[in-house]
């Protein structure tokens, strides 16, 4: 019957990009959508308008305008787009706006791909290499000034190594920015005034202790890498996603406590980062759900081009990157083609059915290959095949051994 799976384009796709990595987070899904054969409308983020203009310039210069078009604008334009009928909507951004997108798609049963971020935890045990932890988590939280949806939002660290970890953070900050972060050409600024004030308010409202950094410059929208020690999951730096260069440390007594806290704070983060032994890492990965994870590093899993990237639960739905980008915008259409010569065999499915039960069972019902005790059973055809092929798998030479044994008697 030649069963096949035909990969069909979904149709017309809406892609709503994000400001923090405007090219990657907009053009990345676009590549998958057009590779799958869809037409696409791209809505770049208005928060990074210069990048949005360049994206439009690239698309209009390189792609067929009847297949891919760009719509610029902010909230009114986005709402107008969401009122239209789409075959899929891809959105990257906050969970709050993600819910708005999902609600707009629901009445039309439009499938969505949502990458929403989350309050991502890092786990640091006594068995972790603290020098490595500090270097990698500092990089993860200061790259792009921490405006990364997959960076850790807080670090659950064994209280016995808190002081040493802070020392290593201080050392790493001096290595990365020997003349200070503000003077470094490698250190970014916060995207706009609103984002700056939001992060500043989170720091102002914390009941924790600022151990390193803390300086800010509103005019430049600069926030120094800041290490804060908190003692409660109700602290402002944990109840919200900081989306900035704030390194929040929450001491714990053991890994079990860390796992419990992580599940209480956000049971489905976009990513998590365990630092410790193999056994401890395995326990974290089996106890806390997440969209992805990087063991002993910051978001390495996202840099591997062929790995699917996406959230789970409240951190999003669906995934893309590599082959997954093609699959995300494709309908897998199952197809069979039944030739006329099998009609004699298929005639048992037509009424009247009296007298056909035995034939129907023989033709369509496959018997299980195990008994009620769960033991493997073999039919006549399996035994014949087994001897013809001299066994399969670990019994590949079974027939040869049986023959040799018989001849040896």
Automatic annotation (TrEMBL):
<dbReference type="GO" id="GO:0005737">
    <property type="term" value="C:cytoplasm"/>
</dbReference>
<dbReference type="InterPro" id="IPR016163">
    <property type="entry name" value="Ald_DH_C"/>
</dbReference>
<protein>
    <recommendedName>
        <fullName>Aldehyde dehydrogenase</fullName>
    </recommendedName>
</protein>
<dbReference type="Pfam" id="PF00171">
    <property type="entry name" value="Aldedh"/>
</dbReference>
<dbReference type="InterPro" id="IPR012394">
    <property type="entry name" value="Aldehyde_DH_NAD(P)"/>
</dbReference>
<dbReference type="GO" id="GO:0004029">
    <property type="term" value="F:aldehyde dehydrogenase (NAD+) activity"/>
</dbReference>
<feature type="active site">
    <location>
        <position position="149"/>
    </location>
</feature>
<keyword id="KW-0520">NAD</keyword>
<keyword id="KW-0812">Transmembrane</keyword>
<keyword id="KW-1133">Transmembrane helix</keyword>
<keyword id="KW-0472">Membrane</keyword>
<keyword id="KW-0560">Oxidoreductase</keyword>
<dbReference type="GO" id="GO:0006081">
    <property type="term" value="P:aldehyde metabolic process"/>
</dbReference>
<dbReference type="InterPro" id="IPR015590">
    <property type="entry name" value="Aldehyde_DH_dom"/>
</dbReference>
<feature type="active site">
    <location>
        <position position="115"/>
    </location>
</feature>
<dbReference type="InterPro" id="IPR016161">
    <property type="entry name" value="Ald_DH/histidinol_DH"/>
</dbReference>
<dbReference type="InterPro" id="IPR016162">
    <property type="entry name" value="Ald_DH_N"/>
</dbReference>
<feature type="domain" description="Aldehyde dehydrogenase">
    <location>
        <begin position="4"/>
        <end position="334"/>
    </location>
</feature>
<feature type="transmembrane region" description="Helical">
    <location>
        <begin position="12"/>
        <end position="36"/>
    </location>
</feature>
<comment type="similarity">
    <text>Belongs to the aldehyde dehydrogenase family.</text>
</comment>
């Amino acid at each position: 019957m030649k069963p096949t799976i035909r990969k069909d384009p979904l149709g017309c796709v809406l892609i709503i990009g994000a400001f923090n990595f405007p090219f990657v987070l907009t053009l990345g899904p676009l590549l998958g959508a057009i590779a799958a054969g869809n037409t696409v409308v791209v809505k770049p983020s208005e928060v990074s308008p210069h990048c949005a203009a360049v994206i439009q310039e690239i698309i209009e210069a390189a792609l067929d305008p009847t297949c891919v078009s760009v719509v610029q604008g902010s909230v009114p334009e986005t709402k107008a787009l969401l009122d239209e009928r789409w075959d899929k909507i891809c959105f990257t951004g906050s969970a709050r706006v993600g819910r708005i997108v999902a609600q707009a798609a629901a009445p039309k049963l439009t499938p969505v791909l949502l990458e929403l971020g989350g309050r991502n935890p890092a786990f640091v045990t006594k068995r972790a290499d603290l020098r490595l932890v500090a270097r990698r988590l500092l990089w993860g939280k200061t790259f792009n000034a921490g405006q990364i949806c997959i960076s850790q939002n807080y670090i659950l660290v064994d209280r016995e190594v808190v002081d040493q970890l802070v020392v290593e953070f201080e050392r790493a900050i001096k290595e990365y920015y020997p003349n200070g972060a503000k003077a470094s050409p490698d250190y970014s600024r916060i995207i706009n005034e609103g984002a700056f004030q939001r992060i500043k308010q989170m720091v102002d409202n914390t009941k924790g202790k600022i151990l390193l950094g803390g300086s800010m410059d509103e005019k430049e929208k600069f926030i120094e890498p800041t290490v804060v020690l908190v003692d409660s999951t109700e602290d402002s730096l944990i109840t919200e996603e900081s989306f900035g260069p704030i390194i929040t440390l929450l001491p714990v007594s053991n890994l079990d406590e860390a796992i419990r806290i992580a599940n209480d704070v956000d049971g489905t983060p976009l990513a998590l980062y365990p630092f410790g032994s193999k056994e401890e890492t395995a326990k974290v990965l089996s106890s806390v759900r997440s969209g992805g994870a990087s063991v002993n590093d910051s978001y390495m899993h996202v840099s591997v081009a062929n790995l699917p990237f996406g959230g789970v639960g409240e951190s999003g739905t669906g995934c893309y990157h590599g082959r997954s980008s093609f699959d995300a915008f494709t309908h897998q259409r199952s197809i069979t083609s039944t030739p006329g010569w099998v009609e004699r065999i298929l005639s048992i499915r037509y009424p009247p059915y009296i007298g056909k039960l035995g034939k129907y069972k023989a033709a369509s019902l496959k018997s299980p290959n195990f008994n009620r005790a769960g033991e493997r059973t073999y039919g006549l055809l399996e035994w014949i095949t087994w001897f013809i092929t001299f066994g399969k798998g670990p019994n590949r030479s079974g027939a040869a051994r049986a023959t040799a044994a018989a001849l040896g008697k």
